[in-house]
Design a protein that fits this description.
The chain has 225 residues and is α/β, with parallel strands linked by helices. It contains nine helices and eight strands.
Length: 225
């Protein structure tokens, strides 16, 4: 049975109305003086540090530790502002899933597996009332590579449970092919949901364990059995 459920955030738990992308764009323009600096950046399924690195490379900015710190220091300020200003939502089935997981007889630990930096994840999920639902997480701060973030999430789950976890005891829930890939990297089951930028048909091509339009289509009992 599944002992650890790891959720992606953007496009899986919430839709922030573009708050993250808008915050990136603001930092590019205000802090680094490059209007439309985020226009050519790809966001879906990626880690925040890898997106910032692309921005630095595209505009010949040194990818130094100081510049990363400078970027994210301003990013969280703008993110908090845009979360208040833009209209977003908790995605279909999320509340039902979280409630149902808590009622399972073998209640799994609920965690996060996200490319967001930790503070960004906290701001987003606190805004939508979800942050306290998760006992642990692995974030973009931990590694620039999503697959390595998955490894860290598994390790933290094992530490929390004080036991080793087989891949079949872990369920990754996400909305992009990268989520499917990082689940595969740790041998985990994967539930792919088409609540982000990818359709069910596009997700199925990457062979998740399950693919659904929303979390409403598959019950926790089925996915965690």
């Amino acid at each position: 049975m599944v002992r650890l459920v790891l959720f992606d955030i953007d496009g899986t738990l919430i839709q922030s109305g573009g708050a993250g992308e808008q915050a990136f764009a603001q930092v590019c323009e205000i802090e680094f003086g490059i209007p439309n600096g985020a226009a050519r950046l790809q966001f879906a399924g990626r880690t925040d540090p890898s997106i910032v690195r692309d921005f630095f490379v595209q505009h010949s900015i040194a990818p130094s530790a100081d510049n990363f710190q400078r970027f994210f220091g301003r990013y969280v300020h703008h993110l908090n502002d845009f979360l208040r200003r833009l209209s977003g939502t908790v995605l279909p089935g999320v509340h039902g899933w979280l409630d149902a997981l808590a009622l399972l007889s073998h209640q799994p630990v609920q965690g996060l597996l996200t490319g967001n930096i930790r503070r960004g994840a906290e701001l987003k999920l606190t805004h939508y009332g979800l942050w306290k639902c998760f006992r642990l997480g692995a974030y973009g701060d931990d590694h620039e590579d999503r697959n390595q973030i998955a490894v860290t999430a598994r390790e933290r789950g094992q530490q929390f449970l004080e036991r080793s976890l087989d891949g079949s005891e872990i369920l990754v829930i996400g909305d992009t092919p990268r989520d499917i890939e990082c689940a595969r990297a740790i041998g985990a089951r994967c539930l792919a949901v088409a609540t982000g930028k990818y359709t069910v048909e596009e997700l199925v091509k990457h062979e998740p364990t399950w693919a659904a339009k929303t979390l409403e289509e598959i019950s926790p009992e089925t996915a965690c059995r």
